[in-house]
Design goal:
Elements lengths: L2 H12 L3 E7 L5 H14 L3 E5 L10 H12 L4 H11 L7 E5 L1 H7 L1 H11 L3 E4 L8 H7 L5 E2 L1 E3 L5 H10 L4 E4 L12 H12 L6 E4 L5 H10 L2 E4 L1 H9 L6 H14 L3
Parallel strand pairs: 1-2, 1-9, 2-3, 3-4, 4-5, 6-7, 7-8, 8-9
Length: 264
Protein backbone atom coordinates (compact mmCIF):
# COMPACT_ATOMS: atom_id res chain seq x y z
CA UNK A 1 0.00 0.00 0.00
CA UNK A 2 1.42 3.36 -1.06
CA UNK A 3 1.56 6.45 1.10
CA UNK A 4 -1.39 8.13 -0.66
CA UNK A 5 -3.75 5.18 -0.23
CA UNK A 6 -2.59 4.72 3.36
CA UNK A 7 -3.14 8.40 4.15
CA UNK A 8 -6.72 8.46 2.88
CA UNK A 9 -7.55 5.26 4.77
CA UNK A 10 -6.16 6.76 7.97
CA UNK A 11 -8.19 9.93 7.45
CA UNK A 12 -11.37 7.99 6.79
CA UNK A 13 -10.92 6.01 10.01
CA UNK A 14 -10.52 9.31 11.90
CA UNK A 15 -13.50 10.92 10.18
CA UNK A 16 -11.26 13.62 8.69
CA UNK A 17 -10.84 15.13 5.25
CA UNK A 18 -7.49 15.63 3.56
CA UNK A 19 -5.79 18.99 3.27
CA UNK A 20 -3.64 19.04 0.13
CA UNK A 21 -1.30 22.02 -0.14
CA UNK A 22 0.32 23.13 -3.39
CA UNK A 23 3.52 25.16 -3.41
CA UNK A 24 5.74 26.16 -6.31
CA UNK A 25 9.14 24.57 -5.82
CA UNK A 26 11.92 27.14 -5.84
CA UNK A 27 9.70 30.08 -4.92
CA UNK A 28 11.17 32.28 -3.72
CA UNK A 29 14.12 29.83 -3.64
CA UNK A 30 14.77 26.16 -3.00
CA UNK A 31 16.00 26.81 0.55
CA UNK A 32 12.58 28.23 1.43
CA UNK A 33 10.87 25.25 -0.19
CA UNK A 34 13.12 22.98 1.86
CA UNK A 35 11.84 24.68 5.03
CA UNK A 36 8.19 24.94 3.96
CA UNK A 37 7.45 21.29 3.24
CA UNK A 38 8.29 20.02 6.78
CA UNK A 39 6.44 23.02 8.23
CA UNK A 40 3.32 22.16 6.24
CA UNK A 41 3.50 18.56 7.46
CA UNK A 42 3.86 19.81 11.04
CA UNK A 43 0.78 22.02 10.59
CA UNK A 44 -1.35 19.03 9.64
CA UNK A 45 -1.20 19.11 5.85
CA UNK A 46 -1.85 15.58 4.63
CA UNK A 47 -0.36 15.75 1.13
CA UNK A 48 1.94 18.32 -0.47
CA UNK A 49 1.81 18.97 -4.19
CA UNK A 50 5.28 20.10 -5.19
CA UNK A 51 4.91 22.26 -8.28
CA UNK A 52 7.62 22.06 -10.93
CA UNK A 53 7.92 25.58 -12.42
CA UNK A 54 7.23 25.82 -16.14
CA UNK A 55 7.47 28.75 -18.51
CA UNK A 56 4.25 28.21 -20.48
CA UNK A 57 1.49 27.04 -18.12
CA UNK A 58 -2.08 26.44 -19.25
CA UNK A 59 -3.94 25.78 -16.00
CA UNK A 60 -2.15 28.09 -13.60
CA UNK A 61 -3.46 31.56 -12.87
CA UNK A 62 -1.41 34.76 -12.47
CA UNK A 63 -0.21 34.06 -8.92
CA UNK A 64 1.35 30.70 -9.73
CA UNK A 65 2.56 31.91 -13.14
CA UNK A 66 4.53 34.69 -11.46
CA UNK A 67 5.92 32.29 -8.84
CA UNK A 68 6.95 29.83 -11.55
CA UNK A 69 8.76 32.52 -13.50
CA UNK A 70 10.62 33.65 -10.39
CA UNK A 71 11.54 30.04 -9.57
CA UNK A 72 12.87 29.46 -13.08
CA UNK A 73 14.92 32.63 -12.90
CA UNK A 74 16.45 31.41 -9.63
CA UNK A 75 17.60 28.21 -11.37
CA UNK A 76 14.93 25.73 -10.30
CA UNK A 77 14.71 22.66 -12.54
CA UNK A 78 12.94 19.30 -12.39
CA UNK A 79 16.24 17.66 -11.52
CA UNK A 80 16.83 20.00 -8.60
CA UNK A 81 13.25 19.50 -7.36
CA UNK A 82 13.76 15.73 -7.34
CA UNK A 83 17.02 16.19 -5.44
CA UNK A 84 15.18 18.32 -2.88
CA UNK A 85 12.44 15.73 -2.38
CA UNK A 86 15.10 13.06 -1.92
CA UNK A 87 16.77 15.17 0.78
CA UNK A 88 13.49 15.71 2.62
CA UNK A 89 12.31 12.11 2.52
CA UNK A 90 14.28 11.16 5.60
CA UNK A 91 12.18 13.47 7.78
CA UNK A 92 8.92 14.07 5.87
CA UNK A 93 6.54 11.12 6.02
CA UNK A 94 3.42 12.52 4.34
CA UNK A 95 2.77 11.82 0.65
CA UNK A 96 4.47 14.12 -1.85
CA UNK A 97 2.95 14.57 -5.30
CA UNK A 98 4.89 16.08 -8.18
CA UNK A 99 2.70 18.60 -9.98
CA UNK A 100 4.17 19.28 -13.41
CA UNK A 101 3.64 19.93 -17.07
CA UNK A 102 4.83 17.25 -19.45
CA UNK A 103 7.67 19.14 -21.15
CA UNK A 104 10.18 18.91 -18.24
CA UNK A 105 9.41 15.20 -17.83
CA UNK A 106 9.66 14.54 -21.58
CA UNK A 107 12.98 16.37 -21.69
CA UNK A 108 14.35 14.20 -18.89
CA UNK A 109 12.91 11.04 -20.44
CA UNK A 110 10.13 8.88 -19.03
CA UNK A 111 12.40 6.10 -17.80
CA UNK A 112 15.03 8.32 -16.11
CA UNK A 113 12.27 10.45 -14.62
CA UNK A 114 10.39 7.47 -13.16
CA UNK A 115 13.55 6.02 -11.65
CA UNK A 116 14.68 9.30 -10.12
CA UNK A 117 11.19 10.11 -8.84
CA UNK A 118 10.77 6.67 -7.25
CA UNK A 119 14.26 6.80 -5.72
CA UNK A 120 13.51 10.28 -4.35
CA UNK A 121 10.27 9.12 -2.71
CA UNK A 122 7.70 10.76 -4.97
CA UNK A 123 4.30 9.16 -4.33
CA UNK A 124 2.29 10.47 -7.24
CA UNK A 125 2.52 12.58 -10.36
CA UNK A 126 -0.05 14.98 -11.74
CA UNK A 127 0.82 16.09 -15.27
CA UNK A 128 -1.54 18.93 -16.08
CA UNK A 129 -1.29 18.85 -19.86
CA UNK A 130 -1.00 15.08 -20.37
CA UNK A 131 -4.44 13.54 -21.00
CA UNK A 132 -4.99 10.05 -19.65
CA UNK A 133 -5.38 8.75 -23.21
CA UNK A 134 -1.85 9.92 -24.10
CA UNK A 135 -0.07 8.92 -20.92
CA UNK A 136 0.90 5.40 -21.95
CA UNK A 137 4.60 6.06 -22.44
CA UNK A 138 4.99 7.78 -19.07
CA UNK A 139 2.83 5.29 -17.21
CA UNK A 140 4.76 2.35 -18.65
CA UNK A 141 7.55 3.63 -16.40
CA UNK A 142 5.78 5.24 -13.44
CA UNK A 143 3.22 2.50 -12.80
CA UNK A 144 5.83 -0.26 -12.23
CA UNK A 145 7.77 2.20 -10.06
CA UNK A 146 4.76 2.52 -7.74
CA UNK A 147 4.06 6.17 -8.58
CA UNK A 148 0.35 7.01 -8.70
CA UNK A 149 -0.95 8.73 -11.84
CA UNK A 150 -3.42 11.38 -10.68
CA UNK A 151 -5.90 12.83 -13.15
CA UNK A 152 -7.89 16.04 -13.35
CA UNK A 153 -11.64 16.16 -13.95
CA UNK A 154 -13.21 19.50 -14.86
CA UNK A 155 -16.82 20.73 -14.71
CA UNK A 156 -16.78 20.57 -18.52
CA UNK A 157 -15.59 16.96 -18.72
CA UNK A 158 -18.27 14.86 -20.41
CA UNK A 159 -19.77 11.81 -18.72
CA UNK A 160 -18.18 9.21 -21.01
CA UNK A 161 -14.75 10.76 -20.63
CA UNK A 162 -15.13 11.01 -16.85
CA UNK A 163 -15.60 7.25 -16.80
CA UNK A 164 -12.44 6.72 -18.85
CA UNK A 165 -10.39 9.14 -16.77
CA UNK A 166 -11.34 7.76 -13.36
CA UNK A 167 -10.85 4.19 -14.55
CA UNK A 168 -7.31 5.03 -15.65
CA UNK A 169 -6.37 6.97 -12.51
CA UNK A 170 -4.74 5.96 -9.25
CA UNK A 171 -4.08 7.70 -5.94
CA UNK A 172 -6.98 10.14 -6.05
CA UNK A 173 -9.11 12.14 -8.45
CA UNK A 174 -8.54 15.90 -8.59
CA UNK A 175 -11.81 17.69 -9.36
CA UNK A 176 -11.48 21.28 -10.60
CA UNK A 177 -14.13 23.37 -8.87
CA UNK A 178 -14.24 26.21 -11.41
CA UNK A 179 -13.97 26.69 -15.14
CA UNK A 180 -10.81 28.68 -15.72
CA UNK A 181 -7.36 28.86 -14.22
CA UNK A 182 -6.17 28.63 -10.64
CA UNK A 183 -6.72 31.35 -8.10
CA UNK A 184 -9.04 33.59 -10.14
CA UNK A 185 -12.42 32.95 -8.50
CA UNK A 186 -13.99 30.99 -5.67
CA UNK A 187 -15.39 27.47 -5.98
CA UNK A 188 -18.91 26.93 -7.29
CA UNK A 189 -20.10 24.98 -4.27
CA UNK A 190 -23.49 23.69 -5.41
CA UNK A 191 -22.23 22.45 -8.77
CA UNK A 192 -19.11 21.04 -7.15
CA UNK A 193 -21.13 19.00 -4.67
CA UNK A 194 -23.33 17.62 -7.45
CA UNK A 195 -20.41 16.72 -9.72
CA UNK A 196 -18.38 15.14 -6.93
CA UNK A 197 -21.38 12.93 -6.19
CA UNK A 198 -21.56 11.88 -9.83
CA UNK A 199 -17.85 11.04 -9.91
CA UNK A 200 -18.11 9.12 -6.64
CA UNK A 201 -20.61 6.78 -8.28
CA UNK A 202 -17.93 5.81 -10.81
CA UNK A 203 -14.88 5.20 -8.64
CA UNK A 204 -13.69 4.08 -5.23
CA UNK A 205 -10.75 6.47 -5.38
CA UNK A 206 -10.80 9.48 -3.05
CA UNK A 207 -11.90 12.76 -4.66
CA UNK A 208 -10.22 16.03 -3.79
CA UNK A 209 -11.37 19.46 -4.94
CA UNK A 210 -9.21 22.43 -5.84
CA UNK A 211 -8.96 25.72 -7.79
CA UNK A 212 -10.22 28.76 -5.91
CA UNK A 213 -10.28 27.43 -2.34
CA UNK A 214 -8.62 29.93 -0.02
CA UNK A 215 -10.53 30.28 3.27
CA UNK A 216 -11.29 27.86 6.11
CA UNK A 217 -15.03 28.26 5.45
CA UNK A 218 -14.63 27.31 1.80
CA UNK A 219 -12.48 24.35 2.86
CA UNK A 220 -15.13 23.24 5.35
CA UNK A 221 -17.90 23.43 2.76
CA UNK A 222 -15.87 21.55 0.15
CA UNK A 223 -14.91 18.98 2.77
CA UNK A 224 -18.58 18.21 3.32
CA UNK A 225 -18.79 16.91 -0.26
CA UNK A 226 -15.31 15.61 -1.06
CA UNK A 227 -12.57 13.53 0.54
CA UNK A 228 -10.11 16.38 0.52
CA UNK A 229 -9.44 19.99 -0.38
CA UNK A 230 -6.57 21.41 -2.43
CA UNK A 231 -5.32 24.90 -1.63
CA UNK A 232 -2.69 26.28 -3.98
CA UNK A 233 -2.77 29.88 -5.15
CA UNK A 234 -3.60 31.10 -1.63
CA UNK A 235 -0.44 29.45 -0.27
CA UNK A 236 1.69 30.81 -3.11
CA UNK A 237 0.21 34.29 -2.67
CA UNK A 238 0.91 34.22 1.07
CA UNK A 239 4.49 33.15 0.42
CA UNK A 240 4.89 36.01 -2.04
CA UNK A 241 3.56 38.54 0.45
CA UNK A 242 6.18 37.50 3.01
CA UNK A 243 9.26 37.04 0.85
CA UNK A 244 12.26 38.37 2.72
CA UNK A 245 10.53 38.41 6.08
CA UNK A 246 11.87 36.18 8.88
CA UNK A 247 8.39 34.91 9.77
CA UNK A 248 7.51 33.55 6.33
CA UNK A 249 7.59 29.86 7.22
CA UNK A 250 5.69 30.35 10.48
CA UNK A 251 3.01 32.43 8.76
CA UNK A 252 2.45 29.74 6.14
CA UNK A 253 2.39 27.07 8.85
CA UNK A 254 -0.27 28.98 10.81
CA UNK A 255 -2.43 29.40 7.72
CA UNK A 256 -2.19 25.68 6.97
CA UNK A 257 -3.20 24.84 10.53
CA UNK A 258 -6.28 27.08 10.24
CA UNK A 259 -7.39 25.19 7.12
CA UNK A 260 -6.76 21.77 8.61
CA UNK A 261 -8.69 22.64 11.76
CA UNK A 262 -12.00 22.72 9.87
CA UNK A 263 -11.31 19.39 8.14
CA UNK A 264 -10.84 17.37 11.32
Amino acid sequence: MGRIEKKFKELKMKGQKALVAYITAGYPDLETTRALIPALAKAGVDIVEVGVPFSDPTADGPVIQAASQAALESGTTLSRVLDLISELRGTVEIPLVLFSYYNPIFSMGSAPFAKRAADAGVDGVLVVDLPAEEAGELRSQTDPAGIDFISLVAPTTGGDRVRKVVKASSGFIYYISVTGVTGTKGPELEETSKNVGAIRALTKLPIVVGFGVSTPEQARQIGNAADGVVVGSAFVKLIGEHVGRPGLVGTVEDYAASLKAVLR
